Amino acid sequence: MPVLVASDLDRTLIYSAAALALTMPDARAPRLLCVEVHESRPLSYMTETAAGLLTDLGDAAVFVPTTTRTRKQYQRINLPGPPPAYAICANGGHLLVDGVTDADWHASVLARLADECAPLEEVREHLLRSADPVWVRKHRVAEDLFAYLVVERELLPEDWVKELAVWAENRGWTVSLQGRKIYAVPKPLTKSAAVREVARRTGAELTLAAGDSLLDADLLLAADRGWRPGHGELADTGWTAPEISALPERGVLAGERILREFLRAVRQPT
Length: 270
Fold this sequence. Notes:
Elements: E1 3-7, E2 15-16, E3 32-38, E4 41-47, H1 48-60, E5 62-65, H2 71-75, E6 86-89, E7 94-97, E8 100-101, H3 103-116, H4 120-130, E9 136-142, E10 146-151, H5 160-169, E11 173-178, E12 181-186, H6 191-202, E13 206-210, H7 217-222, E14 225-228, H8 233-236, E15 244-246, H9 252-267
Parallel strand pairs: 1-5, 1-13, 13-14, 14-15
Antiparallel strand pairs: 2-4, 3-4, 6-7, 7-8, 9-10, 10-12, 11-12
Helix pairs in contact: 1-9
């Protein structure tokens, strides 16, 4: 039976320059491979060692990139290894099969959102009304599924995100602060639901997962084994659960460690 490996991307396997956390002396820093270019500039990296590990993983398991990114944002990433047959974008809103959206899956997600939570427009209007232009740089809607803000973290009031989370909770939405982005995402829109569908289609009996943010918690809980790095929302709050390993590594070296753990578990599934 195939092993399914579902992993978050940003700040889990791939890292922006600001998130690399290269704390070692310059001469001992790992060699980096650029895996994403945006507007003709390098944007995301992994270590060359991690690139080799991911290539091996793609040969040994069903590797499923599992991201909150939109399809367009995901498709500019050029990961090493064989092209994934499945990918999950928009936090589970889109299931890509050989790069193409599965229309039936997307329709089922839209029906669930309509039944179970407040509409996107209500949340978007609240964000526009309550977020201060002093610290908001961009308002964005992703795939007509959820909303996020790009903010100046040093100017962001400490209690604003907590107040937003309480407001959103009462409407069936969740809030996540990741770097300079504040996400408002419907609770029924989950990575775990899409991963379960891929497991059903592939016949996988073992699912492994990794992620760093609040939006990855359901993914980790749905897996048979999971890993989180030593940075991010989950690490900051001390979040853990049975079968979840909290790794000490931070930054790009955490991505390398996660891939080593995936490969070890795939090769020794017991």
